[in-house]
């Protein structure tokens, strides 16, 4: 999926047959244990998503923030089906035979956004290498339908459209307010984490091209921490993103979504997220959200408004 989608919001594995002394990496540290008190919106959001036959990255990627976000009547819509053409090692979105595009999906997403009363709508997708344009035209139609129905600001969280000439240009015709494409990890781990089709330099170039095409768009990217990256490697990525005009940065903890997914190398303490956030902001990002449970679309509206980024108790820089 759009790596991105984003990616990367898995829930930790909870095994009923877990051995008495599991490896430390499988134990959730205290800062990742949430006291969840779902509010009234949870059932409504779930019912609406089901009624309109929509996919969300919140569910497909097992996002740990789903109860909180859905309770607040916020969700990230995932278009172009629920089957991805990339074998990313961190993601729980199904892979395999892709689905037919649903021509009325843009209108159904728009209807959901309207009924949820969203002022900022995040739209992501699976990666569709099988489509000639990677799904860019469908993306464009969805952005336009949502904007027409809601007047909301729109954030697109896109796949890399690698090898799809003209796809980015087609999508940018819809003039999203925020263009988000996740870097996910450091270049040394790219192949392991994102699969052999994904290329670090292409990710940077995609972000830079979006800015060149539409200088007023806010560009945004995110990384998962705890996959084996070093601090020096992270700082190099921060510098690369800034060199390519990226405005907003998100940093969150990788959590293994399924037994087959990449293992967690390390749980990064909140203080370290805090420090990395401060460093990133000092380097020049306009906004940084950095915390164990921060995800690409977590409190995305706050970031898009260039206001204070609230991260629900997670450190924000
Ligand atoms: S952080 Fe994003 S993907 Fe996760 S539940 Fe919230 S809106 Fe959905």
Output the helix-strand order. HEHHEHEHEHEHHEHEHEH
Largest sheet: 8 strands, mixed
> Going across the major beta sheet, what is the strand order?
1-2-3-4-5-6-7-8
Uncertain stretches of 5 or more adjacent residues: 1-25, 308-317
Mean pLDDT: 88
Spatial gap, N to C terminus: 28 Å
Helix content: 25-40%
Any idea what the shape is?
A: globular
Structure annotation, total helices = 11
Q: Please give the radius of gyration in angstroms.
A: 18 Å
User: Helix/strand/pairing class, anyone?
Assistant: alpha/beta
Number of strands: 8
Q: Give the bound compounds.
A: iron/sulfur cluster
Strand content: 5-15%
Task: Provide an overview of this structure.
The protein is α/β, with parallel strands linked by helices and 317 residues long. The protein contains 11 helices and 8 strands. It has helices at 41-51, 57-60, 66-71, 105-116, 136-150, 167-172, 190-194, 200-213, 231-243, 270-283, 300-304; strands spanning 55-56, 76-79, 120-125, 153-157, 178-180, 218-225, 248-253, 287-290. The chain has an 8-stranded mixed β-sheet. α4 (105-116) runs parallel beside α5. It binds iron/sulfur cluster.
């Amino acid at each position: 999926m759009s790596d991105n989608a984003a990616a990367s919001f898995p829930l930790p594995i909870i095994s009923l047959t877990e051995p008495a002394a599991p490896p430390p990496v499988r134990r959730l540290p205290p800062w990742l244990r949430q006291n969840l008190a779902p509010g009234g919106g949870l059932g409504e959001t779930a019912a609406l998503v089901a009624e309109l036959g929509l996919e969300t990255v919140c569910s497909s990627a097992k996002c740990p923030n789903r109860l909180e976000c859905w309770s607040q009547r916020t969700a990230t819509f995932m278009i172009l089906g629920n089957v991805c053409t990339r074998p990313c090692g961190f993601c729980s979105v199904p892979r395999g035979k892709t689905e037919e595009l649903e021509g009325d999906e843009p209108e159904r997403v728009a209807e959901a956004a309207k009924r949820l009363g969203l002022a900022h709508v995040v739209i992501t997708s699976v990666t569709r290498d099988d489509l000639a344009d990677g799904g860019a035209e469908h993306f464009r139609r969805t952005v336009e339908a949502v904007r027409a129905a809601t007047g909301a600001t729109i954030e697109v969280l896109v796949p890399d459209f690698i090898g799809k000439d003209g796809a980015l240009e087609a999508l940018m015709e819809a003039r999203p307010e925020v263009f988000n494409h996740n870097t996910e990890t450091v270049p040394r781990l790219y192949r392991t984490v994102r699969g052999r089709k994904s290329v670090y330099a292409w990710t940077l170039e995609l972000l830079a091209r979006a800015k060149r095409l539409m200088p007023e768009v806010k560009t945004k990217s995110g990384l998962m921490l705890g996959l084996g990256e070093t601090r020096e490697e992270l700082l190099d990525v921060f510098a690369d993103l800034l060199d390519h005009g990226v405005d907003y940065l998100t940093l969150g903890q990788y959590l293994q979504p399924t037994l087959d997914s990449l293992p967690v190398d390390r749980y990064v303490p909140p203080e370290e997220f805090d420090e990395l956030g401060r460093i990133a902001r000092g380097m020049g990002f306009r906004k940084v959200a950095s915390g164990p449970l921060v995800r690409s679309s977590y409190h995305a509206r706050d970031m898009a408004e260039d206001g204070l980024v609230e991260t629900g108790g997670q450190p924000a820089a």
